[in-house]
Structure formats: C-alpha cells, structure tokens
Amino acid sequence: MNAVICTVDIVLLTLGDEGLSVALLKRDRQPFKDLAALPGGFIHADTDVDGFDAAMRVLSSKTGIHAPYLGQLATFSGAARDPRGWSVSLAYYALVPFDVITGAGHPDVKLVPVDRLPALPFDHAAIVATAVERLRSKSQYSSLPCFLVGELFTLPQLQRVYEVLMGEELNKVSFRRKMTELDVLEPVEGQMAASGASRPAQLYRLKPAFRDQPGLLKRGL
Amino acid sequence: MNAVICTVDIVLLTLGDEGLSVALLKRDRQPFKDLAALPGGFIHADTDVDGFDAAMRVLSSKTGIHAPYLGQLATFSGAARDPRGWSVSLAYYALVPFDVITGAGHPDVKLVPVDRLPALPFDHAAIVATAVERLRSKSQYSSLPCFLVGELFTLPQLQRVYEVLMGEELNKVSFRRKMTELDVLEPVEGQMAASGASRPAQLYRLKPAFRDQPGLLKRGL
DNA sequence: ATAATAGTGTCTATTAGACACTATTAA
DNA sequence: TTAATAGTGTCTAATAGACACTATTAT
Question: Are residues A30 and A60 part of one domain?
Fold first, then answer.
C-alpha cells in the first residue's frame, strides 16, 4: 500500500541585478544526473525532526546557506513526477539577500533569473512558479520582501525591491505610510547609507520580533 | 533512509447553526481506535494519481461527500506526530454546504463546531486550526465562502456567511459593491427566495468559471 | 395599512496617490 | 553653486462606510 519516495526541495530565491533569481544545483546522481535542479534530498527519517528540519538540513548541506526566511510552500506529489515511482516532495521556499549567496562562495550554486529558466527535471518548473507566485502575492500585503535585503537597508532600497517584485512603480509617500503601518522596521540611529552625490538615506533594520516571520497589513500595498 | 508513512487528511468544513464546524469520524483502527478524528487514510501509490486524487478518494470513501471545493492546506510531518513512526500527512481542506453533509446521511460523520473541539489524535487539532485560519484569511479577499452556501443563494444569506467567518458585521452597501467587483456571481432570473413576511431576495449562483476555484479581490473585504 | 427585510442613492469619512517643496550630501 | 536623491506637507482622487430612502412581500 505504501511505497512512496519522500523528499524535500528548496526554492532559494534572491534578488540580483538580473531580477528575481533561483538557486539551481547540478544533480550529482540519477535520475537526471548533471542537470540543473532545485536543491533537494530525501527525508532522513532517522535524523530529521520534521519536514522543516529536513528543509534546513538540505539547504545548509547543499548550499552552505542559512536563509533568514524559510517557509513551507506546498507539497507536490504523484505517480508521474519522478521516474523512480510515486513520490512526495515537501517544497519549501527560502529568501536570502543576494550577497549571502555570492558571499557563501558555493561554486556549484548557480543563480538563474526566474523568467529565463532552463528546462528543469521533475516538476521543478512548477515548484519554482508556485514559489514566485507566492512571493509576489505576499509582497502585496506583508514585509516578506524584507528578507531579500541585507540586515541594514534604506527605505528607497526596500521600495525598489517591492517594485521589482510587484512589477510596478510605487508611490513614495504611500509606500512609507504602509511601512510605518506595518511597524516592522526600526531606524539604526546615526547611520546613513553612502549613496552617490546625493543625500544619504536613513538605515533601518527589522525589529527583532519580525526577524523570522513577516508582518502583515490589513489593507495591501 | 526512507521509511515514511504517507497519509492524507481532510478538514471538511461547513457552516451550521452552531457556527463553523468540522466533520469528524470515529477511527476504525489503531492507533487511537474509536477516537473522533479527521477523515484520513494512506496514500495508495498503486491507484492514486497524486495527492489531490488521494484526497478526493478519501473524502468520498469515508464520508460519501463530493465537496464543491477541495484544496491543499499544508503538509504536516515529523517523527513525533504518529506513534507508528515518521509520517507525512498531506492535509486538504474541503468546503461544503451544511445540507450536503446532513443530506448525505452518513451516520458516522459528526459535525463539531471548531471552537468546541474535543481532544483530537495526532496533530489533528493543529491541522484544523490551520484550516480555519486559512478559510478566515481567504474570506477577507476572495469568494471562497461561496462554497459554504448551496448552489442558489441570496446576497443577504451570503453576507451572513461572510460575517460569521470574519467575526464582524459588514456594511451592506460595501459588501454588495465588493461582490460586484469580485464578478463571480450571476443572478438567476425570475427566481426569488421565500423568506418570512418580507420582500424576497434575488437568487444568485456562481458563474461557471468560478465553480471550482474562488475569485480574488485586489483590495480586501 | 403595517411589519419586515431587500435593494439603492447619496453624503461623509477614510485611505491612497500626485505633486511640490525642503533637506542633505558630493563635486 | 548645482546635481542628485531623501524625506515630508498637503491637496486631490478614490474607496469605504453611514444613513436614509424606496421596493416588495405576507398578514
């Protein structure tokens, strides 16, 4: 009755010069050996506490990255998605600042813009699409995009992140009102970001209570 | 490496006189035999196409009910949730009009208000809580609650459903504006609902395109 | 006619966006 | 000083809610 392959797959997203990108890894075993795919692996029933724990293990062992945000995405399952048999993939999505990936210096990790994906094995294309959709949706009404910037950031930087995710320009006054309403940021006193030949911007960071999970707005934008 | 129990559990929700309620079934086997629990069962890797297919099978075989809405909720997993070992439960939630459950006449199915749940086996209490939260959240900005009323309904009936789910009274004019904006309903010409000694209300039904999935609002409420 | 609830027109309050103005830096 | 971008005050537009009025039924 039961002969199900149980795996975890991670959609590690970041925002770089080429837009929203996903981390892909060359597969080191069959099936689809040597193809670029999502970082993933089997559930280790003897050592993993639960799916989230397995996701953290897979993410850090395959990429060396500790993401500030890691959340359950959805579960992809069925007889057709893996040639080895009926399988379940617990898909998680992680958000991480660009320089955390480049800085981790894992040479196998390739960042690929989500709108220029190569053909992916299994149903990984659908998993990535679901993750992107989830991130874009949550960007409408939460502070989730804050996990794509570094620990310290300015409001103009953050606004540009929101704008890329939402695919539209945002009103500066409204955006700042919404950030105030979200109430997840605190200014870092005295510090300013060095920009070009213009006024430097106030630096902010996430309030401690929101470093692991986003804050939510009543009304979006 | 793999010895994972793969199951499906269904949170079947409906709206009755006692408020939002969940369908529980007396377990017919160990563990927790004879305790009330969510309808669930093992994945049948030899016959189920995928998790959704397994959820439909479990729902109809255990309760005899075909729900107008069935969606993936989340996946609950880990070493501790099932005494038999490391397990994965693909949790789905289903919405169904009250009279579909009572009319199906499955005597084992007990409807229990979600705010007066008995102690439940496994992590079923957490699964139900997640489903209720999801439904309440989606009620803010989608037509999901429409799946809790019958095929034909009036706007005052639907508004009462939204009010129960959201736990607050809604402005009649605003509610109707939002329903118009959602654009998922069509009036059933000529028909009126028989009420008491007052003006009968126009009957509506879901537009065919929205009979399987809800419509969404830009701005909530 | 009266009571009861459905449905709508319209005014007011709240929220979002446009726009302009001041602030602060490098060159 | 100018150029460039940060940050804010304030007016206008859009949206949501309050309230009252008309509509339609049973008694």
Answer: yes
- Residue B168 touches partner A, C-beta closer than 8 Å: no
CATH number of the CATH domain containing B127: 3.90.79.10
Same domain? A74 vs A171: no
What pTM did the predictor assign? 0.95
Q: Could you tell me if A133 and A171 lie in one domain? A: no
Question: How many domains does chain B contain in total?
Answer: 2
**Tokens 């397995």, residue?**
A54
Cα–Cα distance for residue pair A219/A75, rounded to 1 Å: 29
Identify the pLDDT of residue A102. Answer: 87
Q: Which residues pair with A40 in a beta bridge?
A: A9
Question: Are A202 and A112 contained in the same domain?
Answer: no
Q: Is residue B162 packed enough to be buried (19+ CB in 10 Å), middle (13-18) or exposed (0-12)?
A: buried
Residues 6+ apart with CB under 8 A from B189: none
Q: DSSP H helical segments within B95-197, as ranges?
A: 98-104, 124-139, 155-166, 172-182
Interface of A with B in 32-51 (CB under 8 A): 42-46, 48-51
> Are B39 and B61 a contacting pair, CB within 8 Å?
no
Please report residues of A whose CB lies closer than 8 A to that of B81.
50
Mean of the pLDDT values across residues B114-122?
97
Yes or no, beta carbons of A86 and B3 under 8 Å apart = no
Extract the residue ranges of chain A whose pLDDT is less than 70.
1-2
Instruction: Considering only CA atoms, name the residue closest to the C1' of nucleotide C9.
Output: B173
CATH code where residue A205 lies = 1.10.10.10
- Tokens 């209300």 belong to B201
If you average pLDDT over residues B17-22, what whole number do you get?
Answer: 96
Looking at residue B195, its pLDDT comes to 73
- pLDDT confidence band for B73 (50 / 70 / 90): very high
Contact between chains at A2 and B3 (C-beta distance less than 8 A) = no
Which residue in chain A is spatially nearest to B217 when comparing CA positions? A220
